[in-house]
Each structure stands twice: as C-alpha cells, then as structure tokens.
Amino acid sequence: MIRNTSNGWGSVSRWLHWILALTIVGMIGFGWWMNHIPARPDRFFYRSIHADIGYLILDTNKALSLEVKSKIEALQTSIKTRILY
C-alpha cells in the first residue's frame, strides 16, 4: 500500500515520517555537538549547515501539516454531507 487510505497511512507517508523524525533527532545531536566544540574558524560553517537543515525540516513539517489539514477538512465535509442526506 503506497498511497494513504481512509484506513491507514501509506508506505511513502511512513517513510517520510521516520526520515523526518531521525533528522530531527540528528539535528538535536548536531546542535549539542556544535555548542560544545571549541571556538575554531569553521564553526560558522557548521552553524550554517544546522540552520539550513533546520529550515528544510520546518518547511517540510509545514507542508505536511497543511496537506493533512486539507485531508481532514475534506473528510469532515464528506461526513457532514453523509449525515445531511
């Protein structure tokens, strides 16, 4: 089952979920490491990478949240239509 159904999430959604979860955990570890390394010239480079990946995660979460929200609204409309008729 690749696509989402009314009974469950598809394999693509599950993979995206776990990739995003592991990326978030990795970013927490990366941020901790960044704050505990001694001052050196390439520290700004690591902060830039951390910020870029963080914004990518934020945008991905926002896009996925809007997608789920639209699916929920469509389902609620469908349920209201069924109840009325």
Q: Describe the main β-sheet briefly.
A: none
Determine Rg (CA atoms, Å). 19 Å
Residue ranges: pLDDT <50 for 5 or more in a row?
A: none
The number of distinct structural domains comes to 1
Tell me the series of helices and strands, N- to C-terminal.
Answer: HH
Report the span from N to C terminus: 32 Å
Question: How much of the residues is beta strand, in percent?
Answer: under 5%
| Count of DSSP-assigned helices | 2
Q: TL;DR?
A:
The protein has 2 helices and no strands. It has 85 residues and is mainly α.
List strands and helices in order, with pairings.
Elements (H helix, E strand, L loop, with lengths): L10 H26 L6 H42 L1
What labels describe this entry?
single chain; 85 residues; mainly alpha; 0% strand; elongated
Can you offer a commentary on this structure?
There is one protein chain. With 85 residues, the chain is mostly helical. It has one domain (11-84). The protein has helices spanning 11-36, 43-84. Helix 1 packs antiparallel against helix 2. The model has no long low-confidence stretch (mean pLDDT 83).
